[in-house]
Amino acid sequence: MAEERILSIKDLNRYIRMKLESDDLMQDVWIRGEISNFTHHSSGHMYFTLKDADSRIKSIMFASHNQRLAFRPKEGTKVIARGNVSVYERDGQYQFYATHMQPDGIGSLYLAYEQLKKKLDEEGLFAAHRKRPLPKFPRAIGVITSPTGAAVRDIIITLQRRYPTVPILLYPVLVQGTQAAPSIVKAIEGMNRHQEADVLIVGRGGGSLEELWAFNEEIVARAIYASGIPVISAVGHETDFTIADFVADLRAATPTAAAELAVPHHLELKQHFRRLEQRMEHALAMRMQQERDRLERLRRSPYFVHPRKYLLQHAERLDRLTEQLHYRTQGLMRKSDERWSKLQHRLVRRNPQEQVIFARKRVQSETHQLLQSMQAMLKEQKLKLMTGMKQLDALSPLKVMQRGYSLVYDEQEKRLIKSLADVQPGDMVHVKVNDGQLECQVWSMKGEDMHG
């Protein structure tokens, strides 16, 4: 009997995983269920269970996929999910790996609508201050809608009726279905890239929430927000509100209303221009009459009737002013002369040559005083020196020795012998007398207390 093959648990789980991953049905499957045990991990991944009335399956949606969701999943949300089934080898548990997810039913669609509306509002996409005014006289109108619907017909008819000369640039798009949102985004970006239109009308006719859902997609909202051309949103009927309405620079209740908001009416413009023309004619007539009246007043003015009389008055005034100018000029000249004289006098006093002469005399005087002081000090010091020398000579030992005294030193002539205690019998001593020196030897000593 052949030896049976024994698998490890890891090998068995891997084999089952490979089997599931090789099954085409398990690699692209759609399921419907209700979310439970929902956890949005800090890593961004979503872990949850999808269940129905009869069964359940553990599920996971990685961050790279759930970032594109148009709604925020939560406990109890009913969804339709697309993904693949595989085995988590470590636990031996098969799981559903979701790659796409959408709400299931009208209630879930409305939940997704409200969640996205709140998110974009918090980011400032609906802020009133960023909405731009529409140009009063656009050079061209861009229309982004379905080429076959009633909306495009209403828009074109209204634009041609109100402003026949304006060019209409139609960019046909899908307005319903899964490819509608990318189609609308591409049209908005294309219109902005070519910059041929001054205003964009983006919209479609009425419909259900599912039919209008393309205008609730986040990518459409962000494309409208990023548009450099002002956008009029014209989606559905007056009671229909989409995310595009809140982001657009202006919301129109219907496509026809959008066309009316985009351009002025040519008849109204003509009436307005006629009123302006009448006002201008009236203003010109009034101005002409005012100028005629002013000219007549000037013609009757005494200045023109008797011009010589007023010229004489001004001539007299000119004479007085000339005389005042003459007197004031002379006064200013006198003040200038006085100031010049004072400055010249000050300059003479501060002449460098005079200051040098004065400084030289002062130096000579101080030099003479210094010499006198030095001579007096020298004389005084000489006198002190002579007195000191006389005192020193009187106290000199040589003077004492001239009177018969002598000095006795030890054998090395370093120490002066002042007492019998400084020598011993037999020591050699040196005796200095007035005219020389004696070398002697002590034979005996006799103190003062030895007399008698």
Task: Draw up the topology in text.
Blueprint: H1 9-21, H2 24-27, E1 29-40, E2 46-51, E3 56-61, H3 63-66, E4 78-88, E5 93-103, H4 106-123, E6 141-145, H5 150-162, E7 168-172, H6 180-194, E8 199-204, H7 218-226, E9 231-235, H8 243-247, E10 250-251, H9 255-262, H10 266-299, H11 302-305, H12 307-349, H13 352-394, H14 397-402, E11 407-409, E12 428-433, E13 436-441
Parallel strand pairs: 3-5, 6-7, 6-8, 8-9, 9-10
Antiparallel strand pairs: 1-2, 1-4, 2-3, 4-5, 11-12, 12-13
Helix pairs in contact: 5-9, 6-7
Structural write-up:
Among the domains are: 9-104, Beta Barrel (OB fold (Dihydrolipoamide Acetyltransferase, E2P)), CATH 2.40.50.140; 138-264, Rossmann fold, CATH 3.40.50; 400-446, no CATH class. It has 14 helices and 13 strands. It has helices spanning 9-21, 24-27, 63-66, 106-123, 150-162, 180-194, 218-226, 243-247, 255-262, 266-299, 302-305, 307-349, 352-394, 397-402, and strands at residues 29-40, 46-51, 56-61, 78-88, 93-103, 141-145, 168-172, 199-204, 231-235, 250-251, 407-409, 428-433, 436-441. The strands form 3 sheets. The protein has a 5-stranded mixed barrel. A 5-stranded parallel β-sheet has the order 7-6-8-9-10, sandwiched between helices. The protein has a 3-stranded antiparallel β-sheet with strand order 11-12-13, with no helix packed on it. Helix 5 packs parallel to helix 9 and helix 6 (180-194) runs parallel beside helix 7.
